[in-house]
Amino acid sequence: MLKLTGISKGFTGVQALSGINFDVRAGEIHALLGENGAGKSTTIKIIAGAYQPDSGEIEFDGKVVRWARPADAKAAGIHVIYQEFVLFPHLTVAENIFLGYERRGAFGLIDHKKTRKDAAALLAKLGVDIDPDKLVSELTVADQQMVEICKALVHDVKLLILDEPTAVISGREAELLFARLAALKAEGVAIVYVSHRLEEIFRIADRVTVFKDGQHVVTTEIGNVNRDKLIAYMVGRDLKDIFPPKRQLDGSAKVVLKAENITVEGRVKNAGIEIRAGEITALAGMVGAGRTELAMGIFGGLPITSGKIWIDGEQVDGMTPAKAISKGIGFVTEDRKGQGLAMQLDVAANITAANLSAVTKTGLIDRRLENEIAREEIANYRIACRGPGTNVATMSGGNQQKVIVARWARTSRKVLILDEPTRGVDVGAKTEIYRIMRNLADQGIGILMISSELPEVVGMADRVVVMREGVVSGQLVGDAITEEAIMSLATQHPTEAAAA
Amino acid sequence: MSAIASSGMTRSIRKNQGIIVVLVLLAVLLVFGAFVSERFRTANNLLNILEQSTGLALVSLGQTLTILTGGIDLSVGSMISLLSTLTSGMINGDGSMVAPVVVGVLALGLVFGLINGILIIWLKVHPLIVTLGTGAVMQGLVLLYSLGPAGKVPKGFTYLAYGKLLGIPVGAIFVVVVFALVGWFLTYFRLGRYIYAVGDDDTGARLMGLPRAKVLLTVYAFSGFCCAMTAIYLVARFGVGQPYTGLNYTLASITPVVVGGTLLTGGKGGVLGTLLGVYLISLLNNVLNFMDVSTHYQLIAQGLIVIAAVSIYVEKRKRV
User: Fold this and answer.
1) Quick one: what percent of chain B has pLDDT higher than 90?
2) Which residues make up the CATH 3.40.50.300 domain(s) of chain A?
3) Chain A touched by B11 (CB under 8 Å)
4) What is the pLDDT of residues B11-32, one digit of tens each?
5) Mean pLDDT of all residues in chain A?
6) With contact defined as beta carbons under 8 Å apart, do A178 and A171 qualify?
7) Which residues, given as ranges, of chain B have pLDDT below 70?
């Protein structure tokens, strides 16, 4: 059905794909695996026509094709369910499902009644109970995912691509999805399935392909591999070479930050957390569980409706980011470009951004001092750039991340919060960031790491706090930290957790 | 028809709670006005308000669509000045020129709007910048054409502004009809749906293969067309066009749109809210007139209303 040959694609500063090969047959589920930054998303976007490859050939349905835009691939019968949904929050569920394939009645006008009815029928076919008249912005993330899946059932699809479809849904909904995929497969649809959950892959996939660092590693029948083998293909090296050794916990570490009963309207309910000096505490859970919101609430970036916060045993009321920073707390946000880096400024300006007063003399910024500090940090964090004057927009994701960490580490004497610190970063840079985090902890800073990547949580965390649907569903310490334990806390109902 | 209209109305209200806010404000102002002045209560005065709101209504209609797509048209003021000056200048008192000039000016508005749309798509520059630029160009063009009021129109032309049908100003009737047509278009045409989708999530619309270029060309061309209608109406009202006629309309056209509940970021809102917003502002000015306060206070009140409205409608930021 689909055949990619020798596809390469580079972005400023990064070679995302180097000559990869990939093929999918009609009537098969083909799992695509790889760590973040392995090139899966880029591959999907090339198949979907959202990116154009620098070189290589795409063959679809027996013909060599070149998509100029997503509409071309869509017209040919390719449907993509992106990890970041393509849903329109101010349109209703029914309107979203049929967007581009509007139900029409007399004179070609949109038939609202039929739209609603057909949407309800499709949702029922999928087996979910969602009101087609609701605005998508009013749905839970899991329901949004199901609507996104529904959209694929509206038109004739030859190739269906799903990017992490189960990341935000529960077991029951996943079963509904798998049943639907089996039916589509029987109809001869080719399916590409991207997921980090290996159990799922062994259950539903016929073949599996692994990418690593933008290169094709292996393609094989699922029966030829086991879990350990797949992980070895994906990681390409031993885990202990990636993660620095953990700290020996002796229980003496003092609590630098304590939060109790934090509630953020609609996102977090009465959640509490303790961060200890010198330790790395991980905040785990599914996307949408309220982890970022809890951390942001503590940092003062989101309004909290209840809760108390202590820093070094001293209660702090009316937290704002400015107050948090002055108390020695730093926050490395998830979205580097949107919330963290000033992309058009140079490395030096970005490093000093959170603490300009340190480089300000008589009201003016001392560029010489600023550059000196930057040079020091560039060496400290092994930031790959030409010098303090390098524009950060031209640097790779991993190096940009180091710039932000360097910035916050300068002002964060007590606590550094990092939200998905290694997202979109290659394995080499990941290892560096882990080393930096451990070093900061060893200097006595309390680290709070929000992460969706289980291997990262297990490899780095001294303590793990797991959240589910806005509440803290459990805590794990030391040897109790395993992927299975975290997953079960992240997915079971709070009541079950309380009973357990 | 009434079933369609009512279902369209409930849809509009459900999707745009701003409508209710404006309706409440309208009611409050009406009651307040009735207390302030005897003459306010007369049917004549209310019709007067409708008549005076025609120009603002027409230009705001086009502006609503550009804002729904997440864009904006800052060239409307200059375009109105240019087109109104051309209208009276080219008719120049000759009754036989009225029909060709009106058709020509409407076509010209469409073309200017299309140029805005093409530049936005082709240069990939934000509409704010593109239309700021084309607006300046058009202001320059009109001043090259004439430094003051140009030409004149035959007597009958003023019917467009002052004529009445069954005792109601024709301009006001025309406004209700075109607003209803555009509301119908937004609700029942696929292109209308895509206007919302592009404004809601531009990248998403591209990934879904929606006809983004067609959407943008349509809304900017229509905005130009609305400017032409406004220009013709203003000539009918004042008897002549001049190079600064449209000056205030650029910002004034945005006010009713946001007061009516349409998000400046696009994707939410609609023309019913805008129409009510127009009435609200005209009513406000009228009431202030009767209170014998300086017209400068009208601007102050308008400004405060915009800020208040937007602060009510603004969606609570979900992320930091």
Assistant:
1) 55
2) 2-237, 241-499
3) yes
4) 666 667 778 888 988 898 888 8
5) 86
6) no
7) 1-15, 314-320
Report in angstroms the alpha-carbon separations of A368 from A347, A359, A378: 13, 9, 15
The C-alpha atoms of residue A193 and residue A206 are separated, in whole angstroms, by 10
CB A228 within 8 A of CB A220: no
- Global pTM reads 0.76
Would you call B197 an interface residue with chain A, using a CB distance cutoff of 8 Å? yes
Measuring CA to CA, how many Å separate B11 from each of A134, B8, B192, B269? 12, 5, 14, 11
Which residue reads 């709670």 in tokens?
Answer: B17
Q: Which burial class, exposed, middle or buried, applies to B137 when counting CB atoms under 10 A from its CB (0-12, 13-18, 19+)?
A: middle
d(CA B72, CA B126): 9
Alpha-carbon distance of B258 to B68, in angstroms, equals 10
Which residue in A290, A248, A254, A301 sits closest to A274, CA to CA? A254
- Domain A2-237, classified CATH 1.10.630.10, yes or no: no
Which residues of chain B are within 8 Å of residue A86 when distances are taken between CB atoms?
201, 204, 207-208
From B204's Cα to the closest Cα of chain A, the distance in A is 5
Query: Which chain A residue is nearest to residue B198, measuring alpha carbons?
Result: A88
Note the CATH architecture for domain A241-499: 3-Layer(aba) Sandwich (3.40)
Chain B residues with CB-CB distance to A80 below 8 A: 207
Cβ atoms of residues B264 and B66 within 8 Å: no
**CA angle at B248 for the pair B140 and B44, rounded to the nearest 5°:** 135
B271 vs B256: CA distance, rounded Å? 10
**Would you kindly state where each structural domain of chain B is located, as residue ranges?**
43-313
For A337, which DSSP code?
I
Cα angle, residue A348 at apex, residues A343 and A351 outer, rounded to 5°: 80
Residues of chain A with pLDDT under 50: 494-500
Mark yes or no for CB contact B193/A95 under 8 Å: yes
CATH architecture of B43-313: Orthogonal Bundle (1.10)
As a whole number of angstroms, the longest Cα–Cα distance in chain A is 76
- State residue B15's pLDDT score: 66
User: A258 in the Ramachandran plot: left (φ > 0), alpha (ψ -120 to 50) or beta?
Assistant: beta
pLDDT in tens, A334-367: 876 666 677 778 888 888 887 777 778 777 888 8
Cβ-based neighbours of B302, under 8 Å, separated by 6 or more:
B255, B281, B284, B285
DSSP letter at A388 equals T
B256 alpha-carbon distance from chain centroid: 8
Q: The complex's ipTM?
A: 0.82
Put simply, whether B7 touches A (Cβ < 8 Å) is yes
Residue A497 is predicted with a pLDDT of: 44
